[in-house]
Known about the structure:
Layout: E1 6-10, H1 20-29, H2 32-35, E2 39-43, H3 49-56, E3 62-65, H4 82-88, E4 92-95, H5 98-103, H6 108-120, E5 124-129, H7 133-137, H8 141-152, E6 162-166, H9 180-198, H10 200-204, E7 206-210, H11 218-222, E8 229-232, H12 239-246
Parallel strand pairs: 1-2, 1-8, 2-3, 3-4, 4-5, 5-6, 6-7, 7-8
Helix pairs in contact: 1-3, 1-12, 6-8, 8-9
The structure holds phosphoenolpyruvate.
Amino acid sequence: MSRRPLVxxxxxxxxxxxxxxxxxxxxxxxxxxxxxxxxFLICPPATLIAEAAARAAGSGVAIGGEDCHAKASxxxxxxxSAEMLKDAGASYVIVGHSERRTDHGESDAMVxxxxxxxxxxxxxxIVCVGERKEQRDAGNAISVVQAQLAGSIxxxxxxxxxxxxxxxxxxxxxxxxxxxxxxxxxxxAIRQTLAGRFGAEGKNMRLLYGGSVNPENARSLIIxxxxxxxxxxxxxxKSKDFLGITASYI
Length: 250
Ligand code: PEP
């Protein structure tokens, strides 16, 4: 099975309702040629999901959440469940982003519970993994990521609903990127790990690269074996930059 690439934007804590004009621009730029080759996803802040889903309807651009709680409902002030995201019009959720792991102390077990919640609610789930700079410098990048995969991905995950995003923490929002060879090496290791655990499903799961992707470096980083798209932060906030990245597929 050939894996259809996914280019996903993570708006993080950026964006007011006026920013949805950029989503409109992304939808307008999602040409028939692109639709034939690549999936588009934008994950805005939770406050914008319902309106984003309504505005993206008909454009083919999917809408996702940036995080979810592990429980479906209950006394968890300020939290948002996967069921709520789905109800608002989301079809994906990102879990385990390094900013969640760092800012909110999310462990692999917590990320796994959130991934299970996303699957329970009927969402596709993007599980983020990635090493810190000192871990790479110590030669431990692959073993760190393998441990995150083991701890963060639920048993029984399938290729149609589970996506892995490899995002080296030191490359997120810094303008720094690994070499294309480093990305290839890591994605090959992730592929082997997933195939070892999930068999054919693991071979078919989409593996995204994330970390300072922009229109200039996208082609060299993401057009390679075992890289099935990108998770994009800063460059997803402007339709021109997002579309500049996706042009790599045409
Ligand atoms: C991210 O937040 O997932 C990300 C990759 O950010 P940036 O593209 O800004 O590095």
